Amino acid sequence: MTNNHFTKILTIAATVLTMTTGAVQATADATASSNDVVKTVSDATAATGHSKAAAITSLAHMSFGFKTGANMTTPATYRWASKTITYKINDKSTYYKQVWNSAVKHWNATKVVKLVPVQAGKTANITLASANSDTTKTSGDIVGMTFSSYHTTQKMGNLNVMAGATSYVYKNIANKMHYSQLDREHVAEHELGHALGLEHADTKKSVMYYANRSSAITSTDVKGLKAAYQGQ
């Protein structure tokens, strides 16, 4: 595959996501070798109070798939090459900086991965932000969204290695649903979980449940993260 062909594939992937989500743009890490393709996927979080059927319909419009896992272990499809992962909070709002800092703190407390602020002048593995969802271009009350890119030819165990991730909390939807700061922190934890490679869980006793904002990170999620990052 030529470099021009590789660059064209990345451009198309980013353009499709930009058209789907309005003002929110996806970014992909294009540093992979020329025989590798970086693909981008998205995960949406439904606001509490909507039926599972409605949430699945919304996700079908906004992502390439909807997956659930075993009741007691949150599943993973991707992982980072290292357990030390850089992040950047790209948000002017002091309030949402607090929301994201809380999410980072709680994932670090699992002691499975180590999220560290990116150094000046470097590109972060994960970007965290708040935004207003364009409800004319989405179906349902999607309160959070994560765009993740991964290498198709790079695996660790049976998991594809991630290339980049950007997570959002949609503040206009959170306001509409009258979410408290704690609710928003749970949304942020959920989206950051996706940015670490986790999928949706079947159990409500998981921060990765598709629509439950009453749960923080639980042992179900820690077990899933350990399974994804074990041995490295």
TrEMBL record:
GO MF annotation, one: zinc ion binding
Give the UniProt keywords, A-Z. Hydrolase, Metal-binding, Metalloprotease, Protease, Signal, Zinc
Identify the Pfam families for this entry.
Peptidase_M10 (PF00413)
Gene3D superfamilies xref list? Collagenase (Catalytic Domain)
A single GO CC term for this protein reads: extracellular matrix
Q: SMART domains of this UniProt entry?
A: ZnMc
Q: Does the keyword Kinase apply?
A: no
Fetch the InterPro entries from UniProt.
MetalloPept_cat_dom_sf (IPR024079), Pept_M10_metallopeptidase (IPR001818), Peptidase_Metallo (IPR006026)
Q: Which GO terms describe its biological process?
A: proteolysis
In terms of domain of life, where is this protein from?
A: Bacteria
From which residue to which does the signal peptide run? 1-26
This protein's name: Peptidase metallopeptidase domain-containing protein
Organism this protein belongs to: Secundilactobacillus paracollinoides
